[in-house]
Amino acid sequence: MKKRIDSALLEAENAKRESDLNSDYAALGEKLARADIDIETITAKAGEFQVAVPSWGTGTGGTRFARFPGEGEPRNIFEKLEDCAVINELSGCTDSVSPHFPWDKVDDFSELKQQADEYGLKWVSVNSNTFQDQPGQEHSYKYGSLSNTQKASRDLAIQHNLDVIEYGQKLGAKSLTVWVGDGSNHPGQQHFQRAFERYLASMEEIYKGLPDDWEMHIEHKMFEPAFYSTIIQDWGSNLLAAMHLGPKCKSLVDLGHHAPNTNIEMIVSRLIQFKKLGGFHFNDSKYGDDDLDSGSLHPYQQFLIFNELVDAEYRNQEGFGPAYMLDQSHNVTDPAESLINSAIEVQRSYVKALLVNREALYGFQEGNDALMASLELKNAFNLDVSPILAMARLRKGSAIDPLAVYRQAGYRKAMAEARPRDPNATGSGIV
Ligand SMILES: [Mn+2]
């Protein structure tokens, strides 16, 4: 497999840390054994865990006020793919990429697929973009796309989604993620029911174009760019639309797209129960944003979400198999560093959730022992599973300390020289 980080450097950096890791791993293994947990089983599962990188996340994000591009950021999908390869080489838990169109559209998809194959990267959920007009676009999305009052704009948005499915088929993806910013900025501007009817009618046309083995995932977002009402503003509208459209349509949960303090883990449970959980966009949020790095602010919430996911796995819940993706905006960090760290933080939540004794928890729940039930979760969360994550990485040839190797390799500096910035280039937004 083609590598972008020098193998000799990676091995030398790992060699410096391997002895300490072995000691820490053995100590943690002993501790877990006292709770009848086999560390090797957990490490094997950690090694299998993968979360997809969003192609748009490899560039510096920005806000509607400004964007401050970083040195050496990727200028096209081929260069984004190069950065995704680095992230995966070092973290060992990001073997797939989620592309966004038309940002990532190329003339020759076989060339793109071949480059991904060489890096050992797969393509997962393709994303459509009907939240901005493209140069020369005949019918505007200013007043919405799939729910626009004008049929010509709706038809354009439908056709774009069908085109995106076609691109995804060429890359080997199996799902389409649809997020639209449609909505209104003034009370009375939009007839809620008629707008939702138009949205559903448009989505029916896209659904008809789904290949048999594909799924469509609807992403909700509370607000922005529509600040009064958004057509799919929460999991309620999302689920109603997904139920209306059919079994191949499911809901996608972006952690940052809820009102502050929303009980997201409970939403996840409901969607699992009704076989409607399509996938995740992981990130963190303080207010109404979806821009912070995963697990950087609310690691316990992220753990509680994984507690529901691992529980579904444990119970062999029918129809369960959500797609895991990151979706965050990096404004002040090197995007590759943020994505490496975030992927590992998501993996960390998964591993901690594996440590919960499910049968003991069910017993506490049935017996109404609220405190012990709560402690069963908190004790798993409080355990430092870093040695497990590092050992899983080492065993698959990734880095014990990914960020140290990344900085030692001088990757960004090298890219700053290899990728001179086009002063006229526009940056991709964030969804
Ligand atoms: Mn998202």
Account of the protein in words:
- The protein has about 425 residues and is of the alpha/beta class.
- The protein has a single domain, classed as TIM Barrel (Alpha-Beta Barrel), CATH 3.20.20.150.
- Helices cover about 50% and strands about 10% of the residues.
- The protein contains 15 helices and 11 strands.
- The chain has helices at about 5-35, 40-50, 75-90, 110-120, 150-170, 190-210, 235-245, 265-275, 300-315, 335-355, 360-365, 370-380, 385-395, 400-410, 410-420, and strands spanning about 55, 95-100, 120-125, 125, 175-180, 185, 215-220, 230, 250-255, 275-280, 325.
- The protein has a 6-stranded parallel sheet with strand order 4-5-7-9-10-11. A 3-stranded parallel sheet has the order 1-2-3, with helices on one face.
- Helix 4 (about 110-120) links the parallel strand 2 and strand 3 (about 120-125).
- Helix 2 packs across helix 10, helix 5 packs parallel to helix 6 (about 190-210) and helix 8 (about 265-275) packs parallel to helix 9 (about 300-315).
- The longest helix has 27 residues, at about 5-35.
- The protein is globular, with a radius of gyration of 22 Å.
- It binds manganese (II) ion.
- Manganese (II) ion (MN) binds near residues 219, 254, 281 and 327.
